[in-house]
């Protein structure tokens, strides 16, 4: 075995320090980028408005049409996009770490469609009409599909491909079920229609306040799991040797994912690929350390979601393209690229 040259050994600690510095400096930059996109979400939309009118609507509203658009439509939409984006990004990062599956995502594994199917059932068959009423059904549906996909994927012998196939099968069945219920219950069709693809268009501050406790609990719980998830990534035997509580970590991680995905889906419907794309981009910057992946995902996922929502509002003016369609168009090629790269790595 040939030892590394002395200069390389001396440079290794410097490279590690440099990477830690970049990761620490990147968080404020990610926060600034999120602020810029949030301001763009308030300033831009299907209705063309000057920056003066937007500023006036935010700071000194007097009841004009522009003020109503800014205060009652765009501002709640932006706040909900921030919360839901952070939830989906964290949920994807937690699921990928928990399953050691780089293709894990609440949309790809059918978890958000499970939540949507439960909400549609509650609205159509049980007459539930309030968000605080059917959010519990969203949690139940998300948890049930999580368990189902894990069982179909082979539990301990589950591989990324098997889990992806199980999630695809579950998603197809749930998607058909949702549309069948909508066709049979035309009276509830308008209430359920936006769950088909996911949208922020119906956002209101009432919706924000109703889902905020669930989203906040899931966000705090997920962010606290950075160190335990790092131990889990080393494998069960190594994690046990380090004193990690594996079952405890898995239960808390699934609880966090269910809270995040269930409340996000209850608020705006199933939005796919956000939890898949953002953790992959973050991992290229931070490395495999979940203590950095989780906060970066919480900051950058809302950037993707709000950016997609702004694009959907601008490209079809004066109509709107729902944000779930935009994220699907962006995420499809990314998913194909990831699958091809993994297949080439295995050859």
Characterise this structure.
The protein is 77% helix and 0% strand. Helix 4 (111-125) crosses helix 11 (246-268). The model is unreliable at 4-11 (pLDDT under 50). The protein has helices at residues 6-43, 51-59, 65-99, 111-125, 131-152, 160-184, 189-192, 205-223, 226-233, 236-241, 246-268, 274-286, 290-315, 323-346. The chain is mostly helical. It is globular.
Quaternary state, please?
single chain
Would you tell me the structural class of the helices and strands? mainly alpha
Task: Note the main sheet.
Answer: none
Query: What coarse outline follows from CA principal-axis ratios?
Result: globular
- How confident overall, as mean pLDDT? 82
Helix content: over 70%
Total beta strands: 0
Number of helices: 14
State which percent range the strand residues make up: under 5%
Ends distance? 27 Å
Spans with pLDDT under 50 lasting ≥5 residues? Answer: 4-11
User: What would you report as the Rg, rounded to the nearest angstrom?
Assistant: 21 Å
Element order: H for helix, E for strand: HHHHHHHHHHHHHH
Task: Please render the helix and strand layout as text.
Layout: H1 6-43, H2 51-59, H3 65-99, H4 111-125, H5 131-152, H6 160-184, H7 189-192, H8 205-223, H9 226-233, H10 236-241, H11 246-268, H12 274-286, H13 290-315, H14 323-346
């Amino acid at each position: 075995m040939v030892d590394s040259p002395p200069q390389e050994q001396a440079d290794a600690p410097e490279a590690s320090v440099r990477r830690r510095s970049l990761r620490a400096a990147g968080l404020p930059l990610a926060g600034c980028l999120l602020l810029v996109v949030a301001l763009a979400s308030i300033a831009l939309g299907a209705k063309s408005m000057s920056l003066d009118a937007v500023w006036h609507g935010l700071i000194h509203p007097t009841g004009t049409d522009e003020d109503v658009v800014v205060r009652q439509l765009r501002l709640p939409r932006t706040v909900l996009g921030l919360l839901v984006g952070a939830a989906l990004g964290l949920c994807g990062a937690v699921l990928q770490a928990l399953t050691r599956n780089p293709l894990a995502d609440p949309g790809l594994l059918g978890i958000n469609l499970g939540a949507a199917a439960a909400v549609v059932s509650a609205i159509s068959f049980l007459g539930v009409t309030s968000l605080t009423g059917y959010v519990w059904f969203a949690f139940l549906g998300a948890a049930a599909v999580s368990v189902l996909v894990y069982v179909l994927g082979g539990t301990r012998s589950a591989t990324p491909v098997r889990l992806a196939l199980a999630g695809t099968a579950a998603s197809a069945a749930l998607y058909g079920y949702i549309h069948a219920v909508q066709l049979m219950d035309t009276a509830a069709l308008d209430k359920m229609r936006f769950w088909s693809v996911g949208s922020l268009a119906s956002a209101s501050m009432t919706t924000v306040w109703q889902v905020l406790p669930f989203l906040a609990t899931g966000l705090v719980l997920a962010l606290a799991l950075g160190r335990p998830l790092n131990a889990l990534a080393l494998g069960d035997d190594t994690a046990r040797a380090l004193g990690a509580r594996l079952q405890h970590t898995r239960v808390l991680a699934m609880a966090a994912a269910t809270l995040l995905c269930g409340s996000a889906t209850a608020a705006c419907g199933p939005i796919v690929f956000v939890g898949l794309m953002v953790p992959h981009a973050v991992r290229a910057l931070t490395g495999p350390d979940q203590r950095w992946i989780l906060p970066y995902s919480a900051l950058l996922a809302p950037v993707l979601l709000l950016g997609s929502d702004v694009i959907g509002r601008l490209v079809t003016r004066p109509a709107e393209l729902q944000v779930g369609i935009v994220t699907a168009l962006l995420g499809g090629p990314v998913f194909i690229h990831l699958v091809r790269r993994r297949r080439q790595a295995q050859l």
